[in-house]
């Protein structure tokens, strides 16, 4: 019995070493987080709003703190306020509210940083203030604005099922890339950006995206099977792009994880990096499938 337990522990340690995290704990935490997400989407759509706010706010704080640690003086308070505002604005006022919240957020962040610079004893150079503003704008657009598309999609008729569907595909893509990369990975996909990703993992993710995309289209979204052939690969592209973008940001900031707030997962931004651009793609696919227009 003890020998079997030792073998199991050794095998688990080997898997953790290859994956770079406590896989069992990460899976358990992911299941709990997924249960909360499902509850908010399926039973009362409005419950998804505080869930989305929490994810976007924590991701904003993580990225802003990481940039401040790298020397960029980005204002966290207005960034968090904008993150809180854009989610309900997107849900209740849809595209118009989304854009108003974004533009007001950019304005407030700009004024805040200019006032900070003007009252500072050691006034920073104009180029530094401009760089701070660009860094803050990146956070606002990439995290808050892109994150609001998932809420915007939830607000549509049967939108909660589309959110659930695209999340299933994105998670499946991540799992497919992980499993194939772990077992067959040899050729690096982007060694200078993310050394752990391989072409074999990408191939596994592509196969998974097609299979799961078809299943989601047929049984969850009431679409034709061929719609999954389009939806799956498109979400594969956006999920991979989001993952690589975050890897580029972390590499530039010289950090491994955005934070350690989520045990076994790193930070909130580490968990939603592939979801952010995929939400915008899913929103576009929703209207394309319905042959509708935004206006």
From TrEMBL:
Keywords: Cell membrane, Lipid biosynthesis, Lipid metabolism, Membrane, Nucleotidyltransferase, Phospholipid biosynthesis, Phospholipid metabolism, Transferase, Transmembrane, Transmembrane helix
Transmembrane regions: 21-42, 48-65, 77-93, 128-155, 161-180, 201-219, 225-244
GO biological process: CDP-diacylglycerol biosynthetic process
GO annotation, cellular component aspect: plasma membrane
Topology relative to the membrane: Multi-pass membrane protein
Main subcellular location of this protein, as a coarse class: membrane
InterPro entries: PC_trans (IPR000374)
GO molecular function list: phosphatidate cytidylyltransferase activity
Pathway entry: Lipid metabolism; Phospholipid metabolism; CDP-diacylglycerol biosynthesis; CDP-diacylglycerol from sn-glycerol 3-phosphate: step 3/3
Localization (cell): Cell membrane
Family named by the database record: Belongs to the CDS family.
Protein name: Phosphatidate cytidylyltransferase
Organism name: Pseudoclavibacter terrae
């Amino acid at each position: 019995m003890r020998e079997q337990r030792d073998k199991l522990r050794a095998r688990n340690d080997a898997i953790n070493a290859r994956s770079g995290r406590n896989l069992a704990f990460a899976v358990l935490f992911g299941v709990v987080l997924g249960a909360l997400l499902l509850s908010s989407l399926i039973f009362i759509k409005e419950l998804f709003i505080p869930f989305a706010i929490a994810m976007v706010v924590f991701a904003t704080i993580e990225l802003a703190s990481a940039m401040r640690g790298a020397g960029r003086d980005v204002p966290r308070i207005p960034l968090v306020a904008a993150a809180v505002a854009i989610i309900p604005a997107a849900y209740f006022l849809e595209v118009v509210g989304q854009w108003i919240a974004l533009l007001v957020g950019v304005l407030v962040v700009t004024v805040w940083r200019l006032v900070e610079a003007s009252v500072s004893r050691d006034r920073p150079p104009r180029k530094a203030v401009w760089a701070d503003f660009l860094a803050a704008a990146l956070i606002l657009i990439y995290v808050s604005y892109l994150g609001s598309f998932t809420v915007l999609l939830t607000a549509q008729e049967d939108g909660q099922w589309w959110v659930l569907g695209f999340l299933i595909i994105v998670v499946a893509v991540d799992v497919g890339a992980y499993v194939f990369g772990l077992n067959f990975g040899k050729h690096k996909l982007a060694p200078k950006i993310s050394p752990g990703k391989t072409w074999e993992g990408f191939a596994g993710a592509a196969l998974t995206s097609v299979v799961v995309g078809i299943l989601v289209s047929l049984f969850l979204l009431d679409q034709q099977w061929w719609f999954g052939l389009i939806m799956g690969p498109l979400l594969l592209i956006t999920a991979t792009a989001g993952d690589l973008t975050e890897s580029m940001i972390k590499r530039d900031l010289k950090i491994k994880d955005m934070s350690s707030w989520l045990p076994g997962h790193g930070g909130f931004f580490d968990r939603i990096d592939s979801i952010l651009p995929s939400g915008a793609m899913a929103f576009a696919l929703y209207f394309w499938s319905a042959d509708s227009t935004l206006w």
